[in-house]
Amino acid sequence: MIPFNKPYLAGVELDYIADAIKKGKLSGDGYYTKKCSEYFEQRYGFKKVLLTTSCTDALEMAAILLDIKPGDEVISPSYTFVSTVNAFVLRGANIRFVDSAEEHPNIDYQEIENNITSKTKAIIVVHYAGVACDMDKITAISKKHNIPLVEDAAQAVDSFYKGKPLGSFGALSAFSFHETKNIISGEGGMLVINDENLIARAEVIREKGTNRASFFRGEVNKYGWVDIGSSFLPSELNAAYLYGQLENLDDIQARRKEIWQRYESNLKTLQQQGKIELPVLFDYATNNAHMFYIICNSVEDRSGLIEELKKRGIYSVFHYLSLHKSDYFLQNNDLIDLPNSDKFQDTLLRLPMFYELTLEQVDYICESIAACFA
Ligand SMILES: *Cc1c(COP(=O)(O)O)cnc(C)c1O
Question: CA-to-CA distance for 287 and 279, rounded, in angstroms?
Fold first, then answer.
């Protein structure tokens, strides 16, 4: 049996967890939390990093930080995870869903401006499969209209746009360390704050609306309730696991890229025969090998493939359902037509991708796909 995902353990995570327990502080913002945030700030030049309990929580912090209020509008792709927009809906926002590009699940930047109104308070982009959106174009739109940009960089760790790390473009950016991502901590995430003006308030929101962080730095002599917030900080146990992963980041990324390239070269023939499409990469974007997907010619092709692969012990999975067609959204909104999002909903298929997947297994998966089309 080849699962779709298997959480990776480098080994050193267990030592760090034991050490965190020995240090006698299990709640958040201890030694390992600090090590992790410093790692990201130094390696990628992020202005400020706050570890969170999930990417979902980082996005919820972003919505609070941007003062999203009932009636405000937020622009987002429809082909994304629920959390991308739910975080903003929790604050009362209405979502303006934008289609994916034709050749890639990323947002079609050319459609963003058509959706900007006087009520637009944020533009959210998702770097699907860790491949950058066209950030020059999107940053220009955000600047021109003076609307803050949020990157849902959940899948985009260690990925770049024209040499600049993803997560460094938005006023705020959210990453995930969920066990299905490249770098993991079980459940976990981080908020990257690139707009300096938002840093102090972010610390408060993350600590239940208190100024506890500045108290511990000795900036105030008692801490109290100064804003709204929640408990968005992860335990040291999670941070310890994460730090073990970060020490192995280069190895993890190299291995995933090797697997990715094997898939691509094995499946080239099927692409040339017009049976499937392979992921498009852009000149401006790196590939962090978060995901290997294929695009089938029809939903029937895809269902057949999933079934056939399952018979051969291989677990492949489709991905998002267009959010503009979700039951929840349609309760309060009219149906709109976003054909590219629907196309990816129906035809995109993700293949097993995890550190321990062997190249022999990749070959077997690709042979099995070819057999399905024979
Ligand atoms: C995984 C993912 C999330 C959610 O991350 P969590 O850490 O599980 O909350 C949000 N957006 C995208 C695009 C994701 O891939």
Answer: 10
Are residues 137 and 272 part of one domain?
Answer: no
CATH of the domain at 147: 3.40.640.10
Return the residue whose CA atom lies nearest to atom 6 of ligand 1: 55
CB neighbours of residue 354 within 10 Å: 18
181 is catalytic: yes
Model-level pTM greater than 0.90? Answer: yes
Same domain, residue pair 93 and 151: yes
Ligand 1 center–CA 289 separation, angstroms: 16
Range of the domain at 365: 249-373
Distance 273 CA to ligand 1 centre (A): 34
Q: Whose CA is nearest to atom 1 of ligand 1?
A: 154
Per annotation, catalytic residue among 35, 69, 119, 181: 181
- Is residue 59, in this structure, part of any structural domain at all? yes
> How does pLDDT run across 129-171, given as a tens digit for each residue?
999 999 999 999 999 999 999 999 999 999 999 999 999 999 9
Buried b (16+ CB within 10 A) or exposed e, 56-66: bbbbbbbbbbb
